[in-house]
């Protein structure tokens, strides 16, 4: 019985080491962006409510309210940066930049 | 206690409230108002916040009455807006404070019946800012007797305490027991099952301060009037400053009352006012100091907890003070008081 457990354990460990992770890299990257967007949305909830309140009292506050409301979107942009840094850019980077520079020059 | 549906939305309400607070009259406006007669004050108000109310009432009233009714109506409009905006727990917290006006209205109706005033006269004195809707208030106005009023209030919290006080009223023939019952209901519900949390803890402290100040004011008034009444009869539960037994032990002793207040947590804020009170022996400046202290306290709470009920309560207080100030100016001018005398009556932060 005991030998069987240790054998099972080695099998499981081996399996874990070799099998695919529970969340593949691409899915993890997608989750990261999604969670960042969720955070941004939660932040915008409060700011948006306050901004609408301010605009309702004074129309001149519209532009300022809009700017403050979308500020948390920077969270999503930063999440995209980490996405590129950790997973690598999904296209051939060298080729892409070469094409871009040759187009520019 | 009814809970309103939805989650609370302090962000929305506090921004609107802060914006409205910024259009309240400032020192300079008051300085201008003090130099005006009633008609000029009405014109000044017409060009400000109170435009709609002055226009609506201008045809029917004039002079100081016009100013007073416009103020009441504007107050009611703003406070009803607060209740419209707020959802969820925030609504409960605001409504709990605004029931002050329900209590005021019930007392006004009772007084109207007691003094056999015309119901149209009583109506202009109502402030339709509390939780009671217009229909109930109209029916209260039509009521012919105090029993009828109590029956109409059946579904509110006021009914049972009023019934209990009715007997005493019939025995003595004075309104005091009924009015005390109404006040007590208001202050008791103010602190009952207040939800927890740090922000609400400070709200509770503020409400306790308000009750303490009310108790202090009542006790000092009674002590100064020299009437042989037990101050604990007017005592409101829930404050920190006095206990009922302590208050009746002190009785009519002004010096001891002042000493108790000076030793309390409010001593620092009220120290200079208490000195002035002892020197001049006048309650006016002391009561003004209480108002200013409460206003400053609520303001401070609003900065500590910006997303709570605190800024809203501080707005309610500030708006009430503004209405009181304008009324004091108008009445003072009408009575021919000098500018300095009126200025002494004003509560300006």
From TrEMBL, chain A:
Top-rank taxon, per record:
Archaea
Pfam family of this protein, just one?
A: ATP-synt_C
Q: Which residues cross the membrane?
A: 20-42, 62-85
| Alphabetical UniProt keywords | Membrane, Transmembrane, Transmembrane helix
Identify the GO cellular component terms for this protein. membrane
This protein's membrane topology, according to the annotation, is: Multi-pass membrane protein
Report the principal subcellular site: membrane
What subcellular compartments does it reside in? Membrane
V-ATPase proteolipid subunit C-like domain location, by residue? 28-85
Please give the name of this protein.
F0F1 ATP synthase subunit C
Q: Which organism is it from?
A: Haloplanus ruber
Automatic annotation (TrEMBL), chain B:
The answer to whether the entry has keyword Ion transport is yes
Q: Name one Pfam family in it.
A: vATP-synt_AC39
Protein's membrane topology: Peripheral membrane protein
Mind listing the GO biological process terms from this record? proton motive force-driven plasma membrane ATP synthesis
Recorded GO molecular functions are: ATP binding; proton-transporting ATP synthase activity, rotational mechanism
Please provide the record's keywords in A-Z order.
ATP synthesis, Cell membrane, Hydrogen ion transport, Ion transport, Membrane, Transport
Which InterPro entries does the entry mention?
ATPase_csu/dsu_sf (IPR036079), ATPase_V0-cplx_csu (IPR014272), ATPase_V0-cplx_csu/dsu (IPR002843), V-ATPase_V0D/AC39_subunit (IPR050873), V-type_ATPase_csu/dsu (IPR035067), V-type_ATPase_csu/dsu_dom_3 (IPR044911)
Superkingdom of origin: Archaea
GO annotation, cellular component aspect: plasma membrane
UniProt-listed HAMAP family: ATP_synth_C_arch
Known role: Component of the A-type ATP synthase that produces ATP from ADP in the presence of a proton gradient across the membrane.
- List, alphabetically, the NCBIfam families matched: AhaC (TIGR02923), PRK01198.1-1 (NF002265)
Checking PANTHER family in the record gives:
V-TYPE ATP SYNTHASE SUBUNIT C
Give the family this protein belongs to, as stated in its UniProt record.
Belongs to the V-ATPase V0D/AC39 subunit family.
Quaternary structure annotation from Swiss-Prot or TrEMBL: Has multiple subunits with at least A(3), B(3), C, D, E, F, H, I and proteolipid K(x).
Name the UniProt record assigns to this protein: A-type ATP synthase subunit C
Q: Which organism is it from?
A: Haloplanus ruber
Q: Which gene encodes it?
A: atpC
């Amino acid at each position: 019985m005991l030998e069987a457990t240790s054998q099972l354990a080695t099998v499981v460990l081996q399996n874990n080491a070799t099998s695919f992770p529970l969340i593949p890299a691409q899915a993890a990257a997608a989750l990261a962006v999604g969670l960042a967007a969720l955070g941004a949305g939660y932040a915008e909830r409060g700011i948006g409510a306050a901004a609408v309140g301010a605009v309702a009292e004074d129309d001149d506050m519209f532009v300022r309210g809009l700017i403050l409301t979308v500020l948390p979107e920077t969270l999503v942009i930063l999440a995209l940066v980490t996405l590129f840094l950790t997973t690598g850019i999904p296209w051939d980077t060298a080729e892409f930049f070469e094409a871009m520079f040759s187009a520019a020059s | 206690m009814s809970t309103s549906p939805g989650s609370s939305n302090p962000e929305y309400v506090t921004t609107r409230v802060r914006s409205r607070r910024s259009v309240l009259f400032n020192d300079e406006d008051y300085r201008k108002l003090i130099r005006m007669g009633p008609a000029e004050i009405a014109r000044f108000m017409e060009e400000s916040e109170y435009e709609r109310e002055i226009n609506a009432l201008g045809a029917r009233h004039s002079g100081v009455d016009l100013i007073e009714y416009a103020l009441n109506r504007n107050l009611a409009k703003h406070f009803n807006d607060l209740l419209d905006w707020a959802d969820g727990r925030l609504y409960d917290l605001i409504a709990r404070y605004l029931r002050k006006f329900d209590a005021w209205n019930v007392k006004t109706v009772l007084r109207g019946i007691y003094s056999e005033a015309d119901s149209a006269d009583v109506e202009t004195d109502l402030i339709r800012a509390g939780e009671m809707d217009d229909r109930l208030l109209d029916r209260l106005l039509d009521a012919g007797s105090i029993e009828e009023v109590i029956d109409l209030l059946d579904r509110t919290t006021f009914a049972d305490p009023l019934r209990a006080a009715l007997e005493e009223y019939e025995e003595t023939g004075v309104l005091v027991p009924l009015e005390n019952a109404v006040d007590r209901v208001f202050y008791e519900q103010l602190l009952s099952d207040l939800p927890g949390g740090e922000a609400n803890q400070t709200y509770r402290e503020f409400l306790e301060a308000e009750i303490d100040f009310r108790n202090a004011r009542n006790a000092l008034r009674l002590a100064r009037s020299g009437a042989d009444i037990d101050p604990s009869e007017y005592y409101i539960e829930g404050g920190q400053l006095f206990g009922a037994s302590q208050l009746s032990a002190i009785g009519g002793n002004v010096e001891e009352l002042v000493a108790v207040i000076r030793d309390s947590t409010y001593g620092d804020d009220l120290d200079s006012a208490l000195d002035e009170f002892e020197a001049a022996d006048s309650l006016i400046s002391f009561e003004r100091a209480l108002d200013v202290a409460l206003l400053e306290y609520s303001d401070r709470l609003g900065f500590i907890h910006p997303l709570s009920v605190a800024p809203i309560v501080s707005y309610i207080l500030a708006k009430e003070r503004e209405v009181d100030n304008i009324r004091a100016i108008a009445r003072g001018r009408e009575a021919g008081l000098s500018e300095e005398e009126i200025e002494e009556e004003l509560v300006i932060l």
